[in-house]
Design a protein that fits this description.
mainly alpha, two-stranded antiparallel ribbon
């Protein structure tokens, strides 16, 4: 993907994701997600577009990892969220597991589940989710495997390479269907920018990946030899 063209499309007036300009911090945040996707993503434009759309919403447009309520420090976040059940201090470290990162990771169990992707014990060091590279990996890996979705479906289930997008239920990969229409608009804009910038993979690669998924599907039955 040609990143120069990608950013030029995002800056178009009709794009309506950021307006006609991007701050250095926004570009840095987007670059972090693009880089993390190259190492931890599935190569699909739809997945990348939805990751960027999620970050656009969850960070209030900043695109870099943030604390919930956009608090500048842990003490302020705890004070603002003192009534939230998921933000209560928990043993053994006394940390509060409120939303952090580009995806706003909440609940102690989710910090634990994302530690392997982060490469660090997030239960012991939850603020590590505020590091751009780590936060981006958490976002992408969580979308892929559906760990935050009660149905266990990853983003490819709702946004297939071939077929109609289910953008309402795609939001379930992060937060039920909260604000799904707003995020769907961001998704379409990011996907347009990705495609105009050359896309991420060839049609041949997509066909090969789709065929592999079908072969591995439990309902697949090979044709008998003649």
């Amino acid at each position: 993907m040609n990143r120069k063209i990608f950013y030029a499309v995002l800056r178009r007036r009709e794009n309506r994701v950021f307006g006609t300009s991007l701050s250095k911090r926004q570009v840095k945040g987007i670059e972090g997600i693009l880089d993390a996707f190259e190492t931890h993503g599935d190569g699909r434009p739809k997945t990348l577009a939805y990751a960027l759309a999620t970050a656009r919403h969850e960070t209030a447009g900043r695109m870099v990892p943030v604390r919930e309520t956009l608090a500048k420090d842990d003490a302020t976040a705890r004070r603002r969220l003192r009534k939230a059940r998921y933000a209560q201090p928990e043993p053994p470290y006394g940390h509060s597991y409120y939303g952090r990162g580009q995806v706003q990771l909440t609940w102690k169990r989710n910090y634990e589940r994302s530690s392997a992707d982060a490469g660090v014990d997030l239960v012991k060091f939850p603020d590590k989710a505020l590091e751009p590279e780590i936060g981006a990996r958490i976002l992408i890996c969580g979308l892929l495997d559906g760990r935050w979705n009660s149905s266990g479906h990853g983003i490819a289930h709702y946004l297939p390479s071939f077929g109609k997008d289910d953008l309402k239920n795609a939001r379930r990969t992060v937060n039920i269907t909260n604000k799904w229409q707003l995020i769907a608009g961001y998704y379409r804009a990011f996907l347009k920018a990705i495609n105009e910038a050359g896309g991420l993979e060839t049609q041949e690669t997509m066909l090969i990946q789709t065929a592999a998924r079908e072969i591995n599907h439990p309902t697949f039955k090979p044709k008998p030899k003649s």
